Structures are given as structure tokens and as C-alpha cells.
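re: ur question from earlier - yeah i can do the single chain one, its not a big deal. heres the input i used so u can compare w yours
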Amino acid sequence: MLAGAVLVGASPWQTNTAIALVSLTLFYLGGMYLNDACDAEIDARERADRPIPRGDVGRLTVTLLGSLMLVVGALALFLTNLAAGVTGLALVAAIIGYDGWHKRIGWSPLLMGACRLLTYLAAAFALTGSVGSALLAGAFGLACHVVGLTYAARQEAYDRIGAAWPLVVLAVPVGVMFVTTLNGPAPSLLALGLGIAYLAWCGRCLSLLFRRSPGDVPRAVVGLIAAISLYDATLMASAGALLAALAAALAFLATLALQRVTSGT
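and the output i got, formated as C-alpha cells:
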């Protein structure tokens, strides 16, 4: 959310920030709830330790809670302006499409990438009512990162990776960061350092995928999830929002720490 605000030139510290933050958080949580509800039968066979197969909570309860979060999240965005609300509805459609079909269609990673792209757009519309080229480039790079990690995550239950060529899409966010860092309004050593950290970390994750030892695929997937914060941090540092960039960098470290407490997927 912060990255979307910064890339469109808005101050992330304004009234609509809280609304956008709550809304996008509800989208994220609601999507995860519905994902578990949709995958309950498959999880019962392949991942019986998940909450629904284990009997910790009912599938209907999870479905209702997830749906409620998506509805409230969409309505909240309409409180900012019409464009943000419509983008929120598009995000709801992408979330439901992914949750309902990701096990059945090979191109489902594109839907997850669309979800991330739309979060940038929703934040930008909520805070300024418009988007620009920097926002669109950043959103596209993030979408490609998520497409790559989602492709890897599809193989997580089997602890192996299939064809490697779809992972080439992970080169796109690197290109976006390189161009943004060189041509951004406030290129800095912090932006360069964060970009190098992103590249090194993603390289480590990819090495795990290609090593294919037991447990490598899940470790690579959660590592790529954490790297989203480094990507956001690099773009925000290039735009001169150093405090927001540092906050995103800390979010990367916090994600890694919390993944030791609970599974990242």
C-alpha cells in the first residue's frame, strides 16, 4: 500500500491511508480464508495439518468470514472515491478467480499477479484518484515477481519444481528496479543497496529451487514472498521516500522472523 502511494507522488500519511490500509489488509486476509475453504478437499488428501482438514474450524465458517472481509474491503475503498472502489471490485474478482480455479488452470499465477498489481492501483486511486507511469511500471514488476513465486508455489506440496522457463518472469522486476533506481527522482545509495539485496536474496531462493533437495521448494517460496517487501523498499527509496523504504526493509526482516513461527504459505 505504501509503495503504491509513494509511486504516485502521494503522501502516505493522510486520512485515506488508514482506509486503504484496512481495505487491502481485509482483501489479503479474506483471500487467504477463501483459499483454504476452496482447497479444503485437496488439503484433506495432501496437507491434513491445515486448519479445516484438522477440524479446527468449519469450511462454511471460513467461507463466510472470508467473503465478509472482501465485501467490507471493497465498500471501504468506495469511501475514498469511485475509481478506488471499482478497482477494489476488480481485485475481489481476481481473488475469487484465483482461489476458485488455481488448482484447475495452468495460468492461475497470472491471476495472483493481477491481485498484486491491483493493490498498487487501489492504493494510488484511494490516495490521489489517479495513476502514473512510475506506478504502472512498479505494479507490473511486482505482478511478474508474484507470477514467478506463485508458479513455484504450485509445486510446493510435491516439493519439486517442474519446467524452469516460467521463472524467467522474475527478471522483469529486476529490470524495473534497475531503471527506476537510475532514473528515479531521488536515486540513492539506499535504493542501490536495497536493489542489490533483492537480487541477492532472489538468487538464493532460485538456487534452492534448482538444487531440489527435500524442503528446498517451500523454503524458496516463502523467501520469495518475503522479497516483495525488498522490491517495494527499493522503489520507494528511488522515489525519495526513505522512511517508507526503511519500513518496508524492516517488514522484510519481520516476515522472515514470523515465518519461523508459522508457515508462510
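DSSP finds twelve helices and no strands in the chain. not sure if urs matches, ping me
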